[in-house]
Write a structure and sequence with these properties.
The protein contains 18 helices and 22 strands.
Protein backbone atom coordinates (compact mmCIF):
# COMPACT_ATOMS: atom_id res chain seq x y z
CA UNK A 1 0.00 0.00 0.00
CA UNK A 2 1.30 3.50 -0.83
CA UNK A 3 2.32 5.55 2.16
CA UNK A 4 0.91 9.04 2.42
CA UNK A 5 2.53 12.26 3.61
CA UNK A 6 0.54 15.28 4.77
CA UNK A 7 2.33 18.62 4.41
CA UNK A 8 0.91 21.43 6.54
CA UNK A 9 1.72 24.87 5.14
CA UNK A 10 1.88 25.98 1.51
CA UNK A 11 4.72 28.50 1.67
CA UNK A 12 7.97 27.92 -0.22
CA UNK A 13 9.17 25.19 2.19
CA UNK A 14 5.91 23.26 1.92
CA UNK A 15 5.77 23.64 -1.85
CA UNK A 16 9.39 22.49 -2.19
CA UNK A 17 8.64 19.45 -0.01
CA UNK A 18 5.62 18.57 -2.14
CA UNK A 19 7.54 19.05 -5.38
CA UNK A 20 10.38 16.79 -4.22
CA UNK A 21 7.95 14.10 -3.00
CA UNK A 22 6.17 14.25 -6.37
CA UNK A 23 9.53 13.77 -8.12
CA UNK A 24 10.09 10.66 -6.00
CA UNK A 25 6.64 9.31 -6.86
CA UNK A 26 5.37 9.60 -3.28
CA UNK A 27 1.73 10.19 -2.38
CA UNK A 28 1.06 13.44 -0.51
CA UNK A 29 -1.53 16.07 0.34
CA UNK A 30 -0.50 19.71 0.77
CA UNK A 31 -2.79 21.69 3.09
CA UNK A 32 -2.77 25.51 3.23
CA UNK A 33 -5.07 27.73 5.31
CA UNK A 34 -4.89 30.68 2.87
CA UNK A 35 -6.51 30.87 -0.55
CA UNK A 36 -3.16 31.23 -2.33
CA UNK A 37 0.15 29.37 -2.38
CA UNK A 38 3.52 30.86 -1.54
CA UNK A 39 3.21 32.26 1.98
CA UNK A 40 5.40 35.37 2.25
CA UNK A 41 6.18 35.19 -1.45
CA UNK A 42 3.63 37.57 -2.94
CA UNK A 43 3.93 39.82 -5.98
CA UNK A 44 1.60 42.61 -7.10
CA UNK A 45 1.74 43.69 -10.74
CA UNK A 46 0.03 47.03 -11.22
CA UNK A 47 0.37 49.91 -13.71
CA UNK A 48 3.70 48.57 -14.97
CA UNK A 49 5.16 48.12 -11.46
CA UNK A 50 6.26 44.77 -10.05
CA UNK A 51 5.98 44.98 -6.26
CA UNK A 52 7.26 42.31 -3.90
CA UNK A 53 5.49 42.08 -0.56
CA UNK A 54 7.95 39.62 0.96
CA UNK A 55 11.35 38.48 -0.37
CA UNK A 56 12.41 40.18 -3.60
CA UNK A 57 15.33 37.92 -4.57
CA UNK A 58 17.43 34.94 -3.53
CA UNK A 59 21.14 34.45 -3.05
CA UNK A 60 22.88 32.29 -5.66
CA UNK A 61 25.76 31.18 -3.43
CA UNK A 62 23.28 28.63 -2.07
CA UNK A 63 22.13 26.46 -4.94
CA UNK A 64 18.54 25.65 -3.94
CA UNK A 65 16.78 28.63 -5.49
CA UNK A 66 18.60 28.69 -8.81
CA UNK A 67 18.38 24.92 -9.26
CA UNK A 68 14.64 24.85 -8.58
CA UNK A 69 13.95 27.70 -11.01
CA UNK A 70 15.82 25.82 -13.72
CA UNK A 71 13.99 22.57 -12.98
CA UNK A 72 10.70 24.40 -13.37
CA UNK A 73 11.71 25.84 -16.75
CA UNK A 74 12.07 29.41 -15.49
CA UNK A 75 15.58 29.93 -16.91
CA UNK A 76 14.45 32.65 -19.31
CA UNK A 77 12.77 34.52 -16.44
CA UNK A 78 15.87 34.79 -14.23
CA UNK A 79 17.12 38.33 -13.69
CA UNK A 80 20.34 39.24 -11.88
CA UNK A 81 20.82 42.38 -9.79
CA UNK A 82 22.26 45.40 -11.58
CA UNK A 83 25.82 45.35 -10.30
CA UNK A 84 26.59 48.65 -12.03
CA UNK A 85 23.56 50.79 -11.13
CA UNK A 86 23.06 49.15 -7.74
CA UNK A 87 26.65 48.61 -6.62
CA UNK A 88 26.60 51.15 -3.80
CA UNK A 89 24.84 50.86 -0.47
CA UNK A 90 24.41 53.91 1.73
CA UNK A 91 24.23 54.41 5.49
CA UNK A 92 22.08 57.16 6.98
CA UNK A 93 24.35 58.84 9.52
CA UNK A 94 24.09 62.23 11.23
CA UNK A 95 21.35 63.39 8.87
CA UNK A 96 23.09 62.40 5.61
CA UNK A 97 23.49 59.39 3.35
CA UNK A 98 27.09 58.19 3.43
CA UNK A 99 28.32 55.63 0.90
CA UNK A 100 29.63 52.37 2.26
CA UNK A 101 33.42 52.54 1.80
CA UNK A 102 34.65 50.80 -1.33
CA UNK A 103 36.29 47.48 -0.54
CA UNK A 104 34.11 46.64 2.46
CA UNK A 105 33.42 42.91 2.30
CA UNK A 106 30.60 42.01 4.63
CA UNK A 107 31.87 44.12 7.53
CA UNK A 108 35.66 44.11 7.14
CA UNK A 109 37.70 46.60 5.06
CA UNK A 110 39.89 45.18 2.29
CA UNK A 111 41.08 48.52 0.83
CA UNK A 112 42.93 51.09 2.96
CA UNK A 113 42.42 54.43 1.17
CA UNK A 114 38.60 54.33 0.76
CA UNK A 115 38.33 53.30 4.39
CA UNK A 116 40.57 56.16 5.53
CA UNK A 117 38.67 58.71 3.42
CA UNK A 118 35.15 57.82 4.53
CA UNK A 119 33.32 60.26 6.80
CA UNK A 120 31.03 57.49 7.99
CA UNK A 121 33.46 56.28 10.67
CA UNK A 122 35.29 58.65 13.04
CA UNK A 123 39.08 58.57 13.36
CA UNK A 124 38.92 56.81 16.74
CA UNK A 125 36.56 54.28 15.12
CA UNK A 126 38.96 53.78 12.21
CA UNK A 127 41.87 53.25 14.57
CA UNK A 128 39.87 50.70 16.54
CA UNK A 129 38.96 48.84 13.35
CA UNK A 130 42.60 48.92 12.24
CA UNK A 131 43.57 47.18 15.48
CA UNK A 132 41.50 44.16 14.38
CA UNK A 133 44.52 42.50 12.80
CA UNK A 134 46.12 42.29 16.26
CA UNK A 135 43.11 40.93 18.17
CA UNK A 136 43.73 37.30 19.24
CA UNK A 137 41.36 34.46 18.49
CA UNK A 138 38.53 33.75 20.89
CA UNK A 139 39.21 30.55 22.79
CA UNK A 140 35.71 29.81 24.10
CA UNK A 141 33.37 27.57 22.09
CA UNK A 142 30.24 29.09 23.63
CA UNK A 143 27.73 30.74 21.32
CA UNK A 144 28.40 34.46 20.86
CA UNK A 145 26.05 37.20 19.70
CA UNK A 146 26.75 39.15 16.54
CA UNK A 147 27.08 42.32 18.65
CA UNK A 148 29.60 40.79 21.07
CA UNK A 149 31.68 39.42 18.19
CA UNK A 150 31.79 42.71 16.27
CA UNK A 151 32.57 44.79 19.36
CA UNK A 152 35.35 42.40 20.33
CA UNK A 153 36.99 42.39 16.91
CA UNK A 154 36.09 45.70 15.25
CA UNK A 155 34.70 48.02 17.90
CA UNK A 156 31.39 49.59 18.86
CA UNK A 157 31.24 52.18 16.07
CA UNK A 158 31.33 49.59 13.28
CA UNK A 159 28.67 47.60 15.11
CA UNK A 160 26.43 50.65 15.41
CA UNK A 161 26.82 52.03 11.89
CA UNK A 162 27.43 49.02 9.64
CA UNK A 163 27.33 45.52 11.11
CA UNK A 164 24.27 45.97 13.32
CA UNK A 165 21.89 47.48 10.75
CA UNK A 166 23.32 45.48 7.84
CA UNK A 167 23.92 41.99 9.25
CA UNK A 168 21.27 42.18 11.98
CA UNK A 169 18.84 43.67 9.47
CA UNK A 170 18.98 40.57 7.29
CA UNK A 171 17.20 38.71 10.10
CA UNK A 172 15.16 41.69 11.41
CA UNK A 173 17.02 40.95 14.63
CA UNK A 174 18.56 42.55 17.68
CA UNK A 175 22.35 42.11 17.21
CA UNK A 176 22.72 41.68 20.98
CA UNK A 177 20.58 38.52 20.86
CA UNK A 178 21.42 37.19 17.38
CA UNK A 179 23.44 33.95 17.42
CA UNK A 180 26.58 34.28 15.30
CA UNK A 181 26.94 30.51 15.04
CA UNK A 182 23.44 30.09 13.60
CA UNK A 183 23.51 33.05 11.20
CA UNK A 184 27.08 33.90 10.13
CA UNK A 185 29.24 30.88 10.98
CA UNK A 186 31.75 31.93 8.31
CA UNK A 187 33.02 34.64 10.67
CA UNK A 188 33.78 32.03 13.33
CA UNK A 189 35.68 29.97 10.76
CA UNK A 190 37.60 33.02 9.51
CA UNK A 191 38.70 33.86 13.02
CA UNK A 192 39.66 30.26 13.72
CA UNK A 193 41.63 29.85 10.50
CA UNK A 194 43.10 33.33 9.89
CA UNK A 195 42.77 34.95 13.34
CA UNK A 196 41.85 38.28 11.67
CA UNK A 197 38.69 38.95 9.66
CA UNK A 198 40.46 41.71 7.73
CA UNK A 199 43.33 39.41 6.73
CA UNK A 200 40.85 36.67 5.80
CA UNK A 201 38.84 39.03 3.58
CA UNK A 202 41.94 40.39 1.86
CA UNK A 203 43.12 36.87 1.15
CA UNK A 204 39.70 35.89 -0.21
CA UNK A 205 39.62 38.96 -2.46
CA UNK A 206 43.07 38.15 -3.88
CA UNK A 207 42.08 34.55 -4.55
CA UNK A 208 38.90 35.66 -6.34
CA UNK A 209 40.92 38.08 -8.51
CA UNK A 210 43.52 35.47 -9.54
CA UNK A 211 41.29 32.40 -9.90
CA UNK A 212 40.34 31.83 -13.56
CA UNK A 213 36.97 30.36 -14.39
CA UNK A 214 33.61 30.92 -15.97
CA UNK A 215 31.62 34.00 -15.14
CA UNK A 216 29.66 33.52 -11.95
CA UNK A 217 25.98 34.40 -11.79
CA UNK A 218 24.90 37.55 -10.01
CA UNK A 219 24.96 37.16 -6.23
CA UNK A 220 21.25 38.00 -6.08
CA UNK A 221 18.65 36.87 -8.59
CA UNK A 222 14.93 37.25 -9.02
CA UNK A 223 12.31 36.48 -11.67
CA UNK A 224 11.22 38.91 -14.35
CA UNK A 225 7.59 38.89 -13.24
CA UNK A 226 8.36 38.67 -9.51
CA UNK A 227 9.08 35.77 -7.18
CA UNK A 228 5.42 34.74 -7.16
CA UNK A 229 6.24 33.16 -10.52
CA UNK A 230 8.19 30.54 -8.55
CA UNK A 231 5.37 29.57 -6.18
CA UNK A 232 2.86 29.61 -9.08
CA UNK A 233 5.10 27.33 -11.14
CA UNK A 234 5.56 24.94 -8.22
CA UNK A 235 1.80 24.68 -7.61
CA UNK A 236 1.19 24.17 -11.34
CA UNK A 237 3.58 21.18 -11.36
CA UNK A 238 1.72 19.40 -8.54
CA UNK A 239 -1.34 17.14 -8.97
CA UNK A 240 -4.54 19.11 -8.39
CA UNK A 241 -6.05 16.37 -6.23
CA UNK A 242 -3.08 16.68 -3.84
CA UNK A 243 -3.67 20.37 -3.12
CA UNK A 244 -6.03 21.61 -0.41
CA UNK A 245 -5.96 25.42 -0.24
CA UNK A 246 -8.29 27.50 1.95
CA UNK A 247 -8.29 24.63 4.44
CA UNK A 248 -6.96 24.78 7.97
CA UNK A 249 -5.60 21.90 10.06
CA UNK A 250 -7.45 21.96 13.38
CA UNK A 251 -5.93 18.90 15.09
CA UNK A 252 -3.17 16.32 14.73
CA UNK A 253 -3.50 13.08 16.70
CA UNK A 254 -1.35 9.98 17.02
CA UNK A 255 -3.21 6.81 15.99
CA UNK A 256 -1.22 3.58 16.29
CA UNK A 257 1.61 3.93 13.75
CA UNK A 258 -0.07 6.76 11.85
CA UNK A 259 -1.37 10.29 12.37
CA UNK A 260 -4.94 11.53 12.04
CA UNK A 261 -5.23 15.05 10.61
CA UNK A 262 -8.54 16.84 11.19
CA UNK A 263 -9.34 19.68 8.79
CA UNK A 264 -11.54 22.75 9.06
CA UNK A 265 -13.92 21.45 6.36
CA UNK A 266 -14.81 18.48 8.58
CA UNK A 267 -12.76 15.90 6.71
CA UNK A 268 -10.02 13.73 8.18
CA UNK A 269 -6.81 12.46 6.61
CA UNK A 270 -4.57 9.61 7.74
CA UNK A 271 -0.83 9.93 7.23
CA UNK A 272 2.31 7.93 7.79
CA UNK A 273 4.35 11.15 7.73
CA UNK A 274 3.40 14.71 8.65
CA UNK A 275 5.60 17.62 7.56
CA UNK A 276 5.05 20.92 9.40
CA UNK A 277 6.02 23.73 7.01
CA UNK A 278 4.50 26.39 9.26
CA UNK A 279 5.91 28.87 11.77
CA UNK A 280 7.22 26.84 14.70
CA UNK A 281 4.60 28.25 17.09
CA UNK A 282 1.82 26.99 14.79
CA UNK A 283 3.41 23.54 14.74
CA UNK A 284 3.73 23.72 18.55
CA UNK A 285 0.00 24.34 19.02
CA UNK A 286 -0.93 21.42 16.76
CA UNK A 287 1.63 19.04 18.28
CA UNK A 288 0.90 19.71 21.96
CA UNK A 289 -1.55 16.77 22.23
CA UNK A 290 1.04 14.53 20.55
CA UNK A 291 4.12 15.54 22.57
CA UNK A 292 4.12 18.46 24.99
CA UNK A 293 7.93 18.51 25.27
CA UNK A 294 8.28 18.98 21.51
CA UNK A 295 5.63 21.70 21.61
CA UNK A 296 7.58 23.55 24.31
CA UNK A 297 10.80 23.29 22.31
CA UNK A 298 9.16 24.66 19.17
CA UNK A 299 7.52 27.48 21.13
CA UNK A 300 10.93 28.60 22.39
CA UNK A 301 11.78 29.94 18.92
CA UNK A 302 10.89 33.62 19.04
CA UNK A 303 9.24 35.55 16.19
CA UNK A 304 8.92 39.27 15.43
CA UNK A 305 6.68 41.31 13.16
CA UNK A 306 7.86 43.35 10.17
CA UNK A 307 6.31 45.42 7.40
CA UNK A 308 7.24 46.69 3.95
CA UNK A 309 5.90 49.71 2.10
CA UNK A 310 6.49 50.08 -1.64
CA UNK A 311 6.08 53.49 -3.25
CA UNK A 312 6.11 54.23 -6.97
CA UNK A 313 6.97 57.73 -8.23
CA UNK A 314 7.35 59.47 -11.55
CA UNK A 315 11.09 59.78 -12.12
CA UNK A 316 10.72 63.44 -13.06
CA UNK A 317 9.34 64.14 -9.57
CA UNK A 318 12.43 62.78 -7.78
CA UNK A 319 15.54 64.94 -7.53
CA UNK A 320 17.74 62.31 -5.85
CA UNK A 321 19.78 60.27 -8.39
CA UNK A 322 18.96 56.95 -6.68
CA UNK A 323 22.22 55.43 -7.93
CA UNK A 324 22.70 52.40 -5.73
CA UNK A 325 20.91 49.55 -4.02
CA UNK A 326 19.44 51.76 -1.30
CA UNK A 327 20.29 52.68 2.27
CA UNK A 328 20.18 51.28 5.79
CA UNK A 329 19.43 53.22 8.96
CA UNK A 330 21.25 52.49 12.24
CA UNK A 331 18.93 52.17 15.22
CA UNK A 332 20.88 54.90 16.99
CA UNK A 333 19.69 57.45 14.41
CA UNK A 334 16.23 57.35 15.96
CA UNK A 335 14.32 57.11 12.67
CA UNK A 336 11.13 55.08 12.14
CA UNK A 337 12.41 52.96 9.26
CA UNK A 338 15.19 50.37 9.09
CA UNK A 339 16.13 50.56 5.44
CA UNK A 340 15.00 51.55 1.96
CA UNK A 341 15.67 49.48 -1.14
CA UNK A 342 15.75 51.25 -4.51
CA UNK A 343 13.97 48.37 -6.19
CA UNK A 344 13.94 49.72 -9.74
CA UNK A 345 17.70 50.38 -9.56
CA UNK A 346 18.46 46.94 -8.13
CA UNK A 347 16.50 44.96 -10.72
CA UNK A 348 15.14 45.61 -14.19
CA UNK A 349 11.40 45.25 -14.91
CA UNK A 350 10.35 46.66 -11.52
CA UNK A 351 8.90 49.96 -12.79
CA UNK A 352 7.94 51.70 -16.05
CA UNK A 353 10.81 53.50 -17.80
CA UNK A 354 9.58 56.90 -16.62
CA UNK A 355 9.11 55.80 -12.99
CA UNK A 356 11.00 54.52 -9.95
CA UNK A 357 10.03 52.04 -7.24
CA UNK A 358 11.24 52.29 -3.64
CA UNK A 359 10.64 49.79 -0.84
CA UNK A 360 10.79 50.78 2.83
CA UNK A 361 11.31 48.33 5.72
CA UNK A 362 9.82 48.82 9.19
CA UNK A 363 9.54 46.91 12.45
CA UNK A 364 11.68 43.96 13.44
CA UNK A 365 13.14 43.12 16.83
CA UNK A 366 14.15 46.70 17.71
CA UNK A 367 10.96 48.46 16.57
CA UNK A 368 8.25 45.83 16.40
CA UNK A 369 5.27 48.06 17.36
CA UNK A 370 5.79 50.13 14.19
CA UNK A 371 5.01 47.07 12.05
CA UNK A 372 1.75 46.40 13.88
CA UNK A 373 0.03 49.58 12.63
CA UNK A 374 -2.55 49.61 9.85
CA UNK A 375 -1.53 50.01 6.22
CA UNK A 376 -2.48 53.68 5.98
CA UNK A 377 -0.27 54.51 8.97
CA UNK A 378 2.63 52.53 7.52
CA UNK A 379 2.39 54.44 4.24
CA UNK A 380 2.31 57.78 6.08
CA UNK A 381 5.42 56.85 8.06
CA UNK A 382 7.29 55.71 4.94
CA UNK A 383 6.46 58.89 3.02
CA UNK A 384 7.48 61.14 5.91
CA UNK A 385 10.78 59.33 6.40
CA UNK A 386 11.58 59.53 2.67
CA UNK A 387 10.77 63.24 2.76
CA UNK A 388 13.30 63.76 5.56
CA UNK A 389 16.03 61.44 4.24
CA UNK A 390 15.71 61.77 0.45
CA UNK A 391 13.79 65.02 0.13
CA UNK A 392 10.89 63.32 -1.68
CA UNK A 393 7.74 65.44 -1.44
CA UNK A 394 5.97 64.20 -4.58
CA UNK A 395 2.70 62.31 -4.49
CA UNK A 396 3.30 58.61 -5.21
CA UNK A 397 1.55 57.05 -8.19
CA UNK A 398 1.47 53.67 -6.40
CA UNK A 399 1.43 52.63 -2.74
CA UNK A 400 1.50 49.09 -1.35
CA UNK A 401 1.93 48.07 2.29
CA UNK A 402 2.38 44.54 3.59
CA UNK A 403 2.29 43.58 7.27
CA UNK A 404 3.94 40.34 8.41
CA UNK A 405 2.68 39.57 11.91
CA UNK A 406 5.09 37.32 13.87
CA UNK A 407 6.51 36.04 10.59
CA UNK A 408 10.25 36.43 11.15
CA UNK A 409 11.95 33.74 13.28
CA UNK A 410 14.77 34.92 15.52
CA UNK A 411 17.96 32.88 15.74
CA UNK A 412 18.67 33.92 19.29
CA UNK A 413 21.72 32.85 21.29
CA UNK A 414 21.52 29.11 21.89
CA UNK A 415 19.53 28.48 18.71
CA UNK A 416 21.74 25.56 17.70
CA UNK A 417 21.19 23.87 21.06
CA UNK A 418 17.43 24.30 20.69
CA UNK A 419 17.58 22.63 17.28
CA UNK A 420 19.52 19.67 18.70
CA UNK A 421 16.81 19.20 21.36
CA UNK A 422 14.05 19.41 18.72
CA UNK A 423 15.81 16.86 16.51
CA UNK A 424 16.36 14.48 19.42
CA UNK A 425 12.67 14.66 20.32
CA UNK A 426 11.60 14.16 16.69
CA UNK A 427 13.82 11.06 16.47
CA UNK A 428 11.52 9.45 19.07
CA UNK A 429 8.43 10.37 17.03
CA UNK A 430 8.75 8.58 13.67
CA UNK A 431 6.86 10.29 10.87
CA UNK A 432 6.97 13.85 12.22
CA UNK A 433 9.10 16.45 10.44
CA UNK A 434 9.60 20.23 10.58
CA UNK A 435 10.88 22.41 7.72
CA UNK A 436 11.14 26.09 6.92
CA UNK A 437 12.64 29.36 8.03
CA UNK A 438 12.63 28.71 11.79
CA UNK A 439 15.42 26.15 11.79
CA UNK A 440 18.58 26.17 9.67
CA UNK A 441 18.31 29.22 7.45
CA UNK A 442 15.56 31.71 6.73
CA UNK A 443 16.44 32.53 3.12
CA UNK A 444 14.52 31.17 0.16
CA UNK A 445 17.26 28.65 -0.85
CA UNK A 446 17.48 27.44 2.78
CA UNK A 447 13.71 26.82 2.92
CA UNK A 448 13.78 25.00 -0.40
CA UNK A 449 16.69 22.85 0.74
CA UNK A 450 15.04 21.98 4.06
CA UNK A 451 11.92 20.72 2.27
CA UNK A 452 13.94 18.83 -0.31
CA UNK A 453 16.02 17.07 2.37
CA UNK A 454 12.97 15.94 4.33
CA UNK A 455 11.25 14.71 1.16
CA UNK A 456 14.35 12.68 0.30
CA UNK A 457 14.41 11.15 3.79
CA UNK A 458 10.71 10.23 3.57
CA UNK A 459 11.10 8.71 0.11
CA UNK A 460 14.17 6.72 1.17
CA UNK A 461 12.45 5.36 4.29
CA UNK A 462 9.33 4.39 2.39
CA UNK A 463 11.37 2.66 -0.31
CA UNK A 464 13.30 0.79 2.37
CA UNK A 465 10.07 -0.35 4.03
CA UNK A 466 8.69 -1.58 0.74
CA UNK A 467 11.91 -3.44 -0.03
CA UNK A 468 11.57 -5.29 3.27
CA UNK A 469 8.03 -6.37 2.42
CA UNK A 470 8.46 -7.25 -1.26
CA UNK A 471 10.16 -10.26 -2.82
CA UNK A 472 11.50 -8.38 -5.85
CA UNK A 473 12.16 -4.93 -7.22
CA UNK A 474 9.34 -5.42 -9.72
CA UNK A 475 6.90 -6.16 -6.91
CA UNK A 476 7.97 -2.98 -5.10
CA UNK A 477 7.45 -0.84 -8.20
CA UNK A 478 4.00 -2.32 -8.82
CA UNK A 479 2.79 -2.10 -5.23
Amino acid sequence: MNKRTIIIGGGIAGLATAYALHEHGCEFVLVESAARWGGKITTAREAGFTVEGGPDSFITQKAGGLELCRKLGLDDQLVGSNSGKAAKTYIYSRGQLQAMPEGMMLMAPTMILPFLRTRLISWPGKLRMGMEIFIPRRRSDEDESLAAFVRRRLGHELLDKIAGPLMGGIHSADPERLSLRSTFPMFIEMERKHRSLTLAMIKRKKQAATTPGTKRPSMFMTLRGGLQQLSEALAAHLPLDSLRANTRVVAVRREADAYRIELSDGTTLLADDVVFATPSYVAADLLRPVDSALADQLSAIRYVSTATVSLGFRRADITHPLQGAGFIVPHSEGRQINACSWSSAKFDHRAPDDSVLLRVFLGGALAEPLAEQDEAALIRIAREELRIILGITAEPVLTKAYRWHKANPQYDLGHESRLVEIEQTLSRLPGLHVVGAAYRGAGLPDCIQSGTRVAQAIATRHASTQNCQCESTAACIES
